[in-house]
Amino acid sequence: MKIMRVKSQVGKAETASTDVLVLTHCEGEGLAKQDAALLDRALGGSLRKLLQSKEFEGKANEVLLYHTQGKVPAKRLILVGLGKKSTVTLETIRQAMGSAAKRVRQAKVGSFTVALPTVMPSGMSSLEVAQAMVEGAILGSYQFTVYRSEAASDHAVAEMKVLIPQTSQLRQVAEGIRRGVATAEATVFVRDLCNHPSNVLTPTMVADEAKAIAKAEKITIKILEQKDMERLGMGALLGVARGSQEPPKFIILEYNGAKKKDERPVVLVGKTITFDTGGISLKPAENMEHMKADMTGGAEVLASIRAAARLKLPLRLISILPVAENMPGGRAMKPGDIVMTLAGKTVEVQNTDAEGRLILADGLAYAMRYKPAALIDIATLTGACVVALGQFAIGMFGNDVTLKEQVRRSGQKAGERVWEMPLWEEYFEQLKSDVADMRNIGGRGGGMITAALFLSKFVGNCPWVHLDIASTDWSERERAYVPKGPSAIGTRLLLQYLIDRSL
Question: Which residues contact residue 282 at a Cβ distance below 8 angstroms, ignoring those fewer than 6 apart?
Protein backbone atom coordinates (compact mmCIF):
# COMPACT_ATOMS: atom_id res chain seq x y z
CA MET A 1 0.00 0.00 0.00
CA LYS A 2 1.27 3.45 -0.90
CA ILE A 3 1.34 5.71 2.17
CA MET A 4 -0.55 8.98 1.84
CA ARG A 5 1.44 12.21 2.04
CA VAL A 6 0.75 14.28 5.16
CA LYS A 7 1.40 18.01 5.49
CA SER A 8 0.62 20.72 8.04
CA GLN A 9 -0.99 24.03 7.14
CA VAL A 10 -1.80 27.12 9.19
CA GLY A 11 -5.32 28.32 8.52
CA LYS A 12 -8.98 28.40 9.48
CA ALA A 13 -11.62 25.80 8.74
CA GLU A 14 -14.06 28.31 7.27
CA THR A 15 -11.55 29.46 4.64
CA ALA A 16 -9.91 26.10 3.83
CA SER A 17 -10.15 25.26 0.13
CA THR A 18 -10.27 21.47 -0.11
CA ASP A 19 -12.23 18.57 -1.59
CA VAL A 20 -13.15 17.37 1.90
CA LEU A 21 -12.82 19.13 5.25
CA VAL A 22 -12.92 16.85 8.30
CA LEU A 23 -14.05 18.33 11.62
CA THR A 24 -14.46 16.64 14.99
CA HIS A 25 -17.41 17.15 17.31
CA CYS A 26 -18.15 16.02 20.86
CA GLU A 27 -21.44 14.40 21.81
CA GLY A 28 -23.90 16.55 23.73
CA GLU A 29 -22.00 19.77 23.02
CA GLY A 30 -23.30 22.78 21.10
CA LEU A 31 -21.41 24.34 18.22
CA ALA A 32 -19.99 27.15 20.35
CA LYS A 33 -16.22 26.69 20.88
CA GLN A 34 -16.19 23.69 18.54
CA ASP A 35 -14.63 23.43 15.10
CA ALA A 36 -17.81 23.80 13.05
CA ALA A 37 -19.16 27.00 14.67
CA LEU A 38 -17.98 29.55 12.08
CA LEU A 39 -18.68 27.16 9.21
CA ASP A 40 -22.25 26.77 10.45
CA ARG A 41 -22.76 30.52 10.18
CA ALA A 42 -21.62 30.47 6.54
CA LEU A 43 -23.86 27.44 5.88
CA GLY A 44 -26.95 29.22 7.20
CA GLY A 45 -27.22 27.24 10.43
CA SER A 46 -27.68 23.89 8.70
CA LEU A 47 -25.13 22.11 10.93
CA ARG A 48 -26.95 23.29 14.03
CA LYS A 49 -30.17 21.85 12.58
CA LEU A 50 -28.45 18.49 12.01
CA LEU A 51 -27.46 18.42 15.67
CA GLN A 52 -30.91 19.47 16.83
CA SER A 53 -32.57 16.76 14.74
CA LYS A 54 -30.04 14.22 16.06
CA GLU A 55 -29.15 13.19 12.51
CA PHE A 56 -25.62 13.68 13.80
CA GLU A 57 -24.93 13.56 17.56
CA GLY A 58 -21.15 13.34 17.82
CA LYS A 59 -21.04 9.82 19.21
CA ALA A 60 -17.65 8.11 19.01
CA ASN A 61 -16.80 7.26 15.37
CA GLU A 62 -20.14 8.56 14.07
CA VAL A 63 -19.57 10.03 10.60
CA LEU A 64 -21.66 12.42 8.50
CA LEU A 65 -20.85 13.67 4.97
CA TYR A 66 -22.32 17.08 4.08
CA HIS A 67 -22.14 18.80 0.66
CA THR A 68 -21.58 22.53 1.15
CA GLN A 69 -23.03 23.56 -2.26
CA GLY A 70 -20.33 26.21 -2.75
CA LYS A 71 -21.25 28.22 0.34
CA VAL A 72 -17.74 27.76 1.77
CA PRO A 73 -14.41 26.98 0.00
CA ALA A 74 -14.51 23.32 1.15
CA LYS A 75 -16.57 21.23 -1.31
CA ARG A 76 -17.60 18.66 1.28
CA LEU A 77 -17.65 18.53 5.03
CA ILE A 78 -17.23 15.37 7.11
CA LEU A 79 -18.23 15.55 10.75
CA VAL A 80 -16.80 12.79 12.92
CA GLY A 81 -17.76 12.18 16.52
CA LEU A 82 -15.39 12.00 19.48
CA GLY A 83 -17.99 10.92 22.04
CA LYS A 84 -18.29 12.68 25.39
CA LYS A 85 -15.92 15.60 25.88
CA SER A 86 -14.78 14.23 29.26
CA THR A 87 -13.72 10.89 27.75
CA VAL A 88 -11.67 12.10 24.75
CA THR A 89 -8.28 10.36 24.57
CA LEU A 90 -5.57 9.88 21.97
CA GLU A 91 -7.24 6.59 21.07
CA THR A 92 -10.61 8.34 20.61
CA ILE A 93 -8.97 10.71 18.13
CA ARG A 94 -7.07 7.88 16.41
CA GLN A 95 -10.29 5.93 15.88
CA ALA A 96 -12.20 9.01 14.72
CA MET A 97 -9.57 9.71 12.08
CA GLY A 98 -9.68 6.09 10.93
CA SER A 99 -13.46 6.30 10.52
CA ALA A 100 -13.22 9.64 8.70
CA ALA A 101 -10.50 8.40 6.34
CA LYS A 102 -12.70 5.46 5.29
CA ARG A 103 -15.53 7.89 4.46
CA VAL A 104 -13.13 10.09 2.47
CA ARG A 105 -12.07 7.06 0.44
CA GLN A 106 -15.71 6.14 -0.20
CA ALA A 107 -16.26 9.67 -1.53
CA LYS A 108 -13.53 8.91 -4.12
CA VAL A 109 -11.53 12.10 -3.59
CA GLY A 110 -7.75 12.32 -3.74
CA SER A 111 -7.05 14.51 -0.74
CA PHE A 112 -8.62 15.95 2.38
CA THR A 113 -7.95 18.48 5.13
CA VAL A 114 -8.55 17.85 8.82
CA ALA A 115 -8.60 20.48 11.52
CA LEU A 116 -6.64 19.93 14.71
CA PRO A 117 -9.38 19.22 17.28
CA THR A 118 -10.44 22.03 19.56
CA VAL A 119 -11.07 19.47 22.29
CA MET A 120 -7.72 17.98 23.30
CA PRO A 121 -7.19 14.97 25.58
CA SER A 122 -6.19 15.92 29.10
CA GLY A 123 -2.44 16.37 29.48
CA MET A 124 -1.67 15.70 25.81
CA SER A 125 0.27 18.06 23.54
CA SER A 126 -0.54 19.00 19.95
CA LEU A 127 2.44 16.80 18.95
CA GLU A 128 0.84 13.70 20.47
CA VAL A 129 -2.58 14.57 19.06
CA ALA A 130 -1.17 15.12 15.56
CA GLN A 131 0.65 11.79 15.75
CA ALA A 132 -2.57 9.99 16.72
CA MET A 133 -4.50 11.75 13.93
CA VAL A 134 -2.01 10.68 11.28
CA GLU A 135 -1.83 7.11 12.56
CA GLY A 136 -5.61 6.78 12.53
CA ALA A 137 -6.03 8.26 9.04
CA ILE A 138 -3.30 6.18 7.38
CA LEU A 139 -4.25 2.94 9.10
CA GLY A 140 -7.96 3.50 8.50
CA SER A 141 -7.18 3.79 4.78
CA TYR A 142 -5.35 0.44 4.67
CA GLN A 143 -6.04 -1.93 1.79
CA PHE A 144 -4.21 -5.08 0.69
CA THR A 145 -4.87 -5.64 -3.00
CA VAL A 146 -1.68 -7.31 -4.24
CA TYR A 147 -3.38 -10.52 -5.29
CA ARG A 148 -6.65 -9.06 -6.59
CA SER A 149 -7.12 -8.62 -10.34
CA GLU A 150 -9.32 -5.54 -9.84
CA ALA A 151 -6.74 -3.87 -7.60
CA ALA A 152 -6.14 -1.05 -10.09
CA SER A 153 -9.72 0.19 -9.63
CA ASP A 154 -9.49 0.51 -5.85
CA HIS A 155 -9.42 4.14 -4.81
CA ALA A 156 -6.62 5.39 -2.57
CA VAL A 157 -6.38 8.77 -0.85
CA ALA A 158 -3.09 10.43 -1.78
CA GLU A 159 -2.80 13.39 0.60
CA MET A 160 -3.90 14.67 3.99
CA LYS A 161 -3.40 18.17 5.39
CA VAL A 162 -3.55 18.94 9.09
CA LEU A 163 -5.00 22.40 9.60
CA ILE A 164 -3.69 24.26 12.63
CA PRO A 165 -4.95 27.63 13.91
CA GLN A 166 -1.66 29.10 15.16
CA THR A 167 1.84 29.29 13.71
CA SER A 168 3.22 28.67 17.21
CA GLN A 169 1.92 25.08 16.99
CA LEU A 170 3.61 24.36 13.67
CA ARG A 171 6.81 22.79 15.00
CA GLN A 172 5.04 20.43 17.40
CA VAL A 173 2.47 19.37 14.83
CA ALA A 174 5.17 18.79 12.19
CA GLU A 175 7.04 16.49 14.58
CA GLY A 176 3.80 14.70 15.43
CA ILE A 177 3.16 14.15 11.73
CA ARG A 178 6.71 12.82 11.25
CA ARG A 179 6.27 10.30 14.06
CA GLY A 180 2.75 9.40 12.99
CA VAL A 181 3.80 8.68 9.41
CA ALA A 182 6.73 6.54 10.62
CA THR A 183 4.65 4.47 13.05
CA ALA A 184 1.76 4.04 10.61
CA GLU A 185 4.14 3.14 7.80
CA ALA A 186 5.73 0.49 10.03
CA THR A 187 2.29 -0.94 10.85
CA VAL A 188 1.32 -1.04 7.17
CA PHE A 189 4.57 -2.86 6.41
CA VAL A 190 3.77 -5.50 9.03
CA ARG A 191 0.21 -5.92 7.78
CA ASP A 192 1.48 -6.39 4.24
CA LEU A 193 4.00 -9.04 5.30
CA CYS A 194 1.35 -10.88 7.31
CA ASN A 195 -1.13 -10.78 4.42
CA HIS A 196 1.30 -12.41 1.99
CA PRO A 197 0.68 -16.16 1.75
CA SER A 198 3.37 -18.49 3.04
CA ASN A 199 4.19 -19.77 -0.44
CA VAL A 200 5.43 -16.22 -1.10
CA LEU A 201 6.66 -15.11 2.33
CA THR A 202 9.16 -17.90 3.01
CA PRO A 203 12.07 -17.62 5.47
CA THR A 204 14.27 -16.71 2.48
CA MET A 205 11.94 -13.86 1.50
CA VAL A 206 11.97 -12.56 5.09
CA ALA A 207 15.77 -12.50 4.86
CA ASP A 208 15.56 -10.65 1.53
CA GLU A 209 13.24 -8.05 3.09
CA ALA A 210 15.70 -7.59 5.94
CA LYS A 211 18.58 -7.15 3.49
CA ALA A 212 16.65 -4.51 1.55
CA ILE A 213 15.88 -2.59 4.75
CA ALA A 214 19.49 -2.80 5.93
CA LYS A 215 20.73 -1.45 2.61
CA ALA A 216 18.18 1.37 2.40
CA GLU A 217 18.54 2.52 6.01
CA LYS A 218 22.28 1.83 6.45
CA ILE A 219 21.62 -0.76 9.15
CA THR A 220 24.15 -3.50 9.91
CA ILE A 221 22.85 -6.97 9.11
CA LYS A 222 24.05 -10.49 9.76
CA ILE A 223 22.19 -13.60 8.60
CA LEU A 224 23.04 -16.99 10.05
CA GLU A 225 22.36 -19.92 7.72
CA GLN A 226 21.62 -23.49 8.79
CA LYS A 227 25.31 -24.47 8.96
CA ASP A 228 26.04 -21.45 11.16
CA MET A 229 23.21 -22.45 13.50
CA GLU A 230 24.51 -26.01 13.67
CA ARG A 231 27.99 -24.74 14.52
CA LEU A 232 26.62 -22.49 17.29
CA GLY A 233 24.30 -25.16 18.69
CA MET A 234 20.85 -23.67 18.02
CA GLY A 235 19.19 -27.04 18.42
CA ALA A 236 15.75 -25.67 19.33
CA LEU A 237 15.38 -23.53 16.19
CA LEU A 238 16.86 -26.26 14.00
CA GLY A 239 14.50 -28.83 15.54
CA VAL A 240 11.46 -26.74 14.58
CA ALA A 241 12.74 -26.23 11.02
CA ARG A 242 13.55 -29.90 10.38
CA GLY A 243 10.20 -30.86 8.85
CA SER A 244 10.26 -28.12 6.21
CA GLN A 245 11.90 -27.92 2.79
CA GLU A 246 12.47 -24.21 3.49
CA PRO A 247 15.84 -23.54 5.17
CA PRO A 248 15.68 -21.54 8.43
CA LYS A 249 17.28 -18.14 8.84
CA PHE A 250 18.53 -16.27 11.89
CA ILE A 251 18.60 -12.54 11.21
CA ILE A 252 20.36 -9.90 13.32
CA LEU A 253 19.98 -6.21 12.45
CA GLU A 254 21.71 -3.40 14.32
CA TYR A 255 21.00 0.34 14.23
CA ASN A 256 23.22 2.65 16.24
CA GLY A 257 22.02 6.22 16.59
CA ALA A 258 23.30 6.53 20.17
CA LYS A 259 25.50 9.44 21.11
CA LYS A 260 27.75 7.02 23.02
CA LYS A 261 28.86 4.32 20.60
CA ASP A 262 29.37 1.80 23.40
CA GLU A 263 25.87 2.31 24.78
CA ARG A 264 24.14 -0.91 25.84
CA PRO A 265 21.39 -1.69 23.33
CA VAL A 266 17.69 -2.27 23.42
CA VAL A 267 17.19 -5.72 21.89
CA LEU A 268 13.93 -6.84 20.28
CA VAL A 269 13.33 -10.52 19.49
CA GLY A 270 10.35 -11.55 17.36
CA LYS A 271 8.87 -14.98 16.72
CA THR A 272 9.03 -15.52 12.95
CA ILE A 273 7.25 -18.71 11.95
CA THR A 274 6.25 -18.08 8.33
CA PHE A 275 3.67 -20.86 8.54
CA ASP A 276 2.67 -22.99 11.49
CA THR A 277 0.93 -26.29 10.81
CA GLY A 278 1.70 -27.44 14.33
CA GLY A 279 4.19 -29.96 12.94
CA ILE A 280 3.55 -33.59 13.90
CA SER A 281 1.14 -32.26 16.58
CA LEU A 282 -0.99 -31.05 13.66
CA LYS A 283 -3.44 -28.18 14.17
CA PRO A 284 -7.13 -28.52 13.23
CA ALA A 285 -7.88 -27.51 9.63
CA GLU A 286 -10.34 -24.76 10.60
CA ASN A 287 -8.72 -21.31 10.35
CA MET A 288 -5.28 -22.80 9.76
CA GLU A 289 -4.85 -20.23 6.96
CA HIS A 290 -4.43 -17.63 9.72
CA MET A 291 -1.10 -19.27 10.55
CA LYS A 292 0.55 -17.36 7.71
CA ALA A 293 0.59 -14.53 10.27
CA ASP A 294 2.52 -16.52 12.87
CA MET A 295 5.50 -14.38 11.91
CA THR A 296 3.85 -11.16 13.16
CA GLY A 297 6.34 -10.71 16.02
CA GLY A 298 9.32 -10.96 13.67
CA ALA A 299 7.70 -8.57 11.18
CA GLU A 300 7.14 -6.10 14.01
CA VAL A 301 10.73 -6.07 15.23
CA LEU A 302 11.86 -5.73 11.59
CA ALA A 303 9.51 -2.77 11.04
CA SER A 304 10.59 -1.23 14.35
CA ILE A 305 14.27 -1.05 13.47
CA ARG A 306 13.45 0.41 10.05
CA ALA A 307 11.27 3.10 11.64
CA ALA A 308 13.85 3.83 14.35
CA ALA A 309 16.45 4.44 11.65
CA ARG A 310 14.09 6.65 9.64
CA LEU A 311 13.24 8.67 12.75
CA LYS A 312 16.96 8.83 13.62
CA LEU A 313 16.20 7.90 17.23
CA PRO A 314 19.22 8.47 19.50
CA LEU A 315 19.62 4.92 20.75
CA ARG A 316 21.25 1.62 19.91
CA LEU A 317 18.75 -0.99 18.76
CA ILE A 318 19.13 -4.62 17.74
CA SER A 319 16.36 -6.67 16.16
CA ILE A 320 16.63 -10.46 16.11
CA LEU A 321 14.44 -12.72 13.96
CA PRO A 322 14.65 -16.51 14.29
CA VAL A 323 12.84 -17.60 11.10
CA ALA A 324 11.45 -21.02 10.17
CA GLU A 325 8.43 -22.96 8.95
CA ASN A 326 6.83 -25.53 11.27
CA MET A 327 5.83 -28.44 9.02
CA PRO A 328 5.20 -32.18 9.35
CA GLY A 329 7.51 -34.39 7.29
CA GLY A 330 9.75 -37.40 7.33
CA ARG A 331 12.49 -35.50 9.18
CA ALA A 332 10.16 -33.45 11.40
CA MET A 333 10.67 -33.13 15.13
CA LYS A 334 8.45 -35.60 17.03
CA PRO A 335 6.78 -35.53 20.44
CA GLY A 336 9.27 -36.95 22.91
CA ASP A 337 12.34 -35.64 21.07
CA ILE A 338 14.93 -33.76 23.12
CA VAL A 339 16.68 -30.68 21.73
CA MET A 340 19.74 -28.84 23.01
CA THR A 341 19.27 -25.05 23.05
CA LEU A 342 21.93 -22.44 22.39
CA ALA A 343 21.96 -21.73 26.15
CA GLY A 344 22.97 -25.34 26.84
CA LYS A 345 19.62 -26.28 28.39
CA THR A 346 17.84 -29.40 27.14
CA VAL A 347 14.15 -29.41 26.30
CA GLU A 348 11.82 -32.38 25.94
CA VAL A 349 9.41 -31.55 23.12
CA GLN A 350 6.05 -32.91 24.24
CA ASN A 351 4.08 -30.92 21.68
CA THR A 352 5.56 -29.75 18.37
CA ASP A 353 2.89 -27.03 18.15
CA ALA A 354 4.57 -25.25 21.06
CA GLU A 355 7.35 -24.27 18.65
CA GLY A 356 7.39 -20.50 19.16
CA ARG A 357 8.98 -20.75 22.58
CA LEU A 358 11.65 -23.06 21.14
CA ILE A 359 12.84 -20.66 18.47
CA LEU A 360 12.59 -17.76 20.93
CA ALA A 361 14.73 -19.67 23.43
CA ASP A 362 17.61 -19.61 20.94
CA GLY A 363 16.79 -16.03 19.95
CA LEU A 364 16.82 -14.80 23.55
CA ALA A 365 20.00 -16.73 24.36
CA TYR A 366 21.71 -15.08 21.38
CA ALA A 367 20.38 -11.66 22.45
CA MET A 368 22.12 -12.03 25.81
CA ARG A 369 25.48 -11.79 24.02
CA TYR A 370 24.79 -8.06 23.56
CA LYS A 371 24.29 -7.41 27.32
CA PRO A 372 21.00 -5.57 26.65
CA ALA A 373 19.90 -2.56 28.64
CA ALA A 374 16.39 -3.80 27.88
CA LEU A 375 15.21 -6.98 26.16
CA ILE A 376 11.70 -7.33 24.72
CA ASP A 377 10.37 -10.33 22.88
CA ILE A 378 7.07 -10.27 21.01
CA ALA A 379 5.25 -13.32 19.71
CA THR A 380 1.96 -14.87 18.68
CA LEU A 381 2.77 -17.42 21.32
CA THR A 382 -0.25 -19.08 22.92
CA GLY A 383 -3.88 -19.88 22.27
CA ALA A 384 -4.23 -19.54 26.05
CA CYS A 385 -3.67 -15.79 25.65
CA VAL A 386 -6.75 -15.58 23.41
CA VAL A 387 -8.81 -17.44 26.02
CA ALA A 388 -7.55 -15.29 28.90
CA LEU A 389 -7.62 -11.82 27.32
CA GLY A 390 -9.82 -11.90 24.22
CA GLN A 391 -8.87 -9.53 21.41
CA PHE A 392 -8.25 -6.18 23.08
CA ALA A 393 -5.26 -6.76 25.37
CA ILE A 394 -1.69 -7.93 24.86
CA GLY A 395 -0.42 -10.30 27.53
CA MET A 396 2.66 -8.90 29.28
CA PHE A 397 5.19 -10.67 31.51
CA GLY A 398 8.54 -9.47 32.76
CA ASN A 399 11.19 -9.48 35.43
CA ASP A 400 11.80 -5.73 35.75
CA VAL A 401 9.25 -3.34 37.30
CA THR A 402 10.61 -0.24 35.57
CA LEU A 403 10.65 -1.78 32.10
CA LYS A 404 7.15 -3.21 32.53
CA GLU A 405 5.81 0.22 33.54
CA GLN A 406 7.53 1.90 30.58
CA VAL A 407 5.98 -0.63 28.20
CA ARG A 408 2.58 -0.25 29.83
CA ARG A 409 2.64 3.55 29.45
CA SER A 410 3.79 3.37 25.84
CA GLY A 411 1.04 0.87 25.08
CA GLN A 412 -1.56 3.12 26.65
CA LYS A 413 -0.37 6.06 24.55
CA ALA A 414 -0.29 3.96 21.37
CA GLY A 415 -3.75 2.48 21.96
CA GLU A 416 -2.18 -0.99 22.10
CA ARG A 417 -2.75 -1.84 25.72
CA VAL A 418 -1.01 -4.53 27.73
CA TRP A 419 -2.24 -6.50 30.72
CA GLU A 420 0.32 -7.91 33.11
CA MET A 421 0.10 -11.59 34.05
CA PRO A 422 2.00 -13.32 36.90
CA LEU A 423 5.40 -14.85 36.34
CA TRP A 424 5.54 -16.97 39.49
CA GLU A 425 8.12 -19.71 39.89
CA GLU A 426 5.49 -22.12 41.25
CA TYR A 427 4.21 -22.58 37.69
CA PHE A 428 7.56 -24.10 36.65
CA GLU A 429 6.46 -27.34 38.35
CA GLN A 430 4.31 -27.88 35.27
CA LEU A 431 7.36 -27.65 32.99
CA LYS A 432 9.53 -30.19 34.79
CA SER A 433 10.60 -33.14 32.66
CA ASP A 434 11.59 -36.65 33.70
CA VAL A 435 14.32 -36.82 31.05
CA ALA A 436 15.48 -33.23 30.31
CA ASP A 437 15.99 -29.85 31.97
CA MET A 438 12.42 -28.87 31.10
CA ARG A 439 9.63 -29.67 28.71
CA ASN A 440 8.04 -27.28 26.24
CA ILE A 441 4.46 -27.47 27.52
CA GLY A 442 2.93 -27.37 30.97
CA GLY A 443 -0.60 -28.61 30.43
CA ARG A 444 -3.84 -26.68 29.93
CA GLY A 445 -3.84 -24.71 33.17
CA GLY A 446 -2.02 -21.38 32.95
CA GLY A 447 -0.76 -22.07 29.44
CA MET A 448 0.18 -18.44 28.75
CA ILE A 449 2.05 -18.25 32.06
CA THR A 450 4.03 -21.47 31.62
CA ALA A 451 5.05 -20.37 28.11
CA ALA A 452 6.40 -17.07 29.47
CA LEU A 453 8.09 -18.85 32.37
CA PHE A 454 9.81 -21.15 29.86
CA LEU A 455 11.22 -18.07 28.08
CA SER A 456 12.33 -16.52 31.36
CA LYS A 457 14.90 -19.31 31.75
CA PHE A 458 16.87 -17.89 28.80
CA VAL A 459 17.22 -14.22 29.83
CA GLY A 460 19.13 -14.40 33.12
CA ASN A 461 18.86 -11.19 35.14
CA CYS A 462 18.58 -8.93 32.09
CA PRO A 463 15.64 -6.45 32.24
CA TRP A 464 13.11 -8.34 30.10
CA VAL A 465 9.52 -8.13 28.96
CA HIS A 466 7.60 -10.75 27.00
CA LEU A 467 4.57 -9.67 24.94
CA ASP A 468 2.10 -12.35 23.84
CA ILE A 469 0.15 -10.91 20.88
CA ALA A 470 -1.74 -14.09 19.98
CA SER A 471 -4.90 -12.38 21.25
CA THR A 472 -4.57 -9.24 19.12
CA ASP A 473 -2.66 -10.09 15.93
CA TRP A 474 -5.74 -11.10 13.89
CA SER A 475 -9.08 -9.27 13.83
CA GLU A 476 -12.24 -11.15 12.87
CA ARG A 477 -13.99 -7.91 11.91
CA GLU A 478 -13.09 -4.46 10.63
CA ARG A 479 -12.79 -1.72 13.24
CA ALA A 480 -12.10 2.02 13.03
CA TYR A 481 -8.47 1.74 11.91
CA VAL A 482 -7.96 -2.02 12.25
CA PRO A 483 -8.80 -4.13 9.17
CA LYS A 484 -10.26 -7.60 9.14
CA GLY A 485 -7.29 -10.00 9.13
CA PRO A 486 -3.74 -9.19 10.27
CA SER A 487 -3.81 -6.18 12.58
CA ALA A 488 -0.07 -5.60 13.23
CA ILE A 489 -1.00 -4.63 16.79
CA GLY A 490 2.19 -4.41 18.83
CA THR A 491 4.14 -2.49 16.17
CA ARG A 492 3.20 0.97 17.40
CA LEU A 493 3.61 -0.11 21.02
CA LEU A 494 7.24 -1.06 20.32
CA LEU A 495 7.88 2.15 18.41
CA GLN A 496 6.23 4.32 21.05
CA TYR A 497 8.41 2.64 23.65
CA LEU A 498 11.52 3.40 21.59
CA ILE A 499 10.41 7.01 21.02
CA ASP A 500 9.62 7.51 24.72
CA ARG A 501 12.97 5.98 25.68
CA SER A 502 14.73 8.40 23.32
CA LEU A 503 13.22 11.54 24.82
Answer: 328, 353
